[in-house]
Amino acid sequence: MPLLTEPNLSGRGKREDLMDMIALVDAKDTPFTSMARKGSKPGNMFFRWQADQNPGPTIGGVIDGTDVSSYSNFVVGYRKELANYAQVFRQTVRVSKLTQDIADVAGVRDELSDNIAKGIIAIKRSMEATFTSDQYGQADNQTTNAYLTAGVQAWIGGNDIGTTLPIGNTTTSPSFITPAASIVSGASASALTDATVQGVLKSIYDQTGKYKSFDAIVGTDLKRAFTSLLGTTALTTTTTAGVTGAGATKVQTFQRDAAADTFIQSVDVFQGDFGTVRLHPTTFLGTVRSGTPPVNTTVYSQKTAYGLVLDMDLIEVRYGGNVANVTALPDYGGGPARLIEAVAGLVVGNPLGLGKFTYDAA
To answer: Which residues contact residue 17 at a Cβ distance below 8 angstroms, ignoring those fewer than 6 apart?
Structure first.
């Protein structure tokens, strides 16, 4: 019998069959940064823009033959300057000389290039989480504080943040604080109803007077709550009202053709009386504030029952040069290194035209 048969090769120079591939399942979308308009390069880390309002109707007439005795100023009391900071996003990568020049890793042709590609993805994800968060704007003090851009959640809200943050968005006249009716909060997203969504759209319409198509960045649990609007589940009772009896029967109603051979249970677009909302699920929607009064922290908390109702015409991201600039760092013997850096700041044109959902849980 030959000595070098397949079972006898173990431990005698036999090479394993390692496929030339790496399986990657983490390919999460970043809908906010993908949809936001790319604005002009900011001229400074602190940049400003103007928000404006139109006057309301005037009732009454003019007496014939009378001269003008008063004038209106549709700038003072209507127009206001808003502002934000840009923020530096950074990732650094390094691989050893042996890893780069000698090691032959399955599925990767160049370890340094692979690290750079993942670093760029990390930058974009960091931007997504920052822009959709409740982070306050902050100036760099050269010691402990870095430049921070105010996230969109901080712009959509009441004045629980004092008179200066987010930078420029105060209650002083004219106020561009998002109305309370445009913000939904509660203990559970399971309480979501079509009337709730209609109420948010109505509140936004009361501010803008326009039937719009909105893009909603929603957490996964809030997306499920929208889908639950398709059907209702109820328990019939056999005792007093509101008390389920022992013989209760579960009744579930679906809004679909009973003869359909495909079960479709998904809501991607909500069309209401005052607008249409396209739903974009995300895993990067969360908060970075805590305490009373709330302050920025370094702890990020994902909020799967949150949602942002956005008019993307009012949203802009201003990049300082390249979206992600890659710079070679000196190699002092440890191996080649790269700096991946981007500068970007968020513009929320007018917070009156936006809304949000802030449920505590699913």
So the answer is: none
Distance separating alpha carbons of residues 354 and 217, to the nearest angstrom: 12
Q: What residues does each domain of the chain span?
A: 35-51+79-361
Measured at the alpha carbon of residue 166, what is the angle toward residues 165 and 168, in degrees to the nearest 5?
A: 90
Model confidence, pTM: 0.82
CA distances from 25 to 22, 28, 159, 221, 304 (A): 10, 9, 41, 21, 20
For 294, the 3-state DSSP assignment is coil
Output 310-313 pairs: Cβ under 8 A, ≥24 positions apart: 310/32, 310/152, 310/214, 310/215, 310/216, 310/217, 310/354, 311/204, 311/208, 311/212, 311/214, 311/215, 311/353, 311/354, 312/35, 312/36, 312/37, 312/215, 313/37, 313/349
The domain defined by 35-51+79-361 folds into phage-related protein like fold (3.90.1690)
What pLDDT sits at residue 259? Answer: 65
Query: Per-block average pLDDT, block size 10, for the chain (362 residues)?
Result: 46 46 60 91 88 85 88 82 91 78 58 85 93 92 92 78 51 77 93 94 94 95 91 55 56 60 77 95 94 87 96 93 81 87 92 94 90
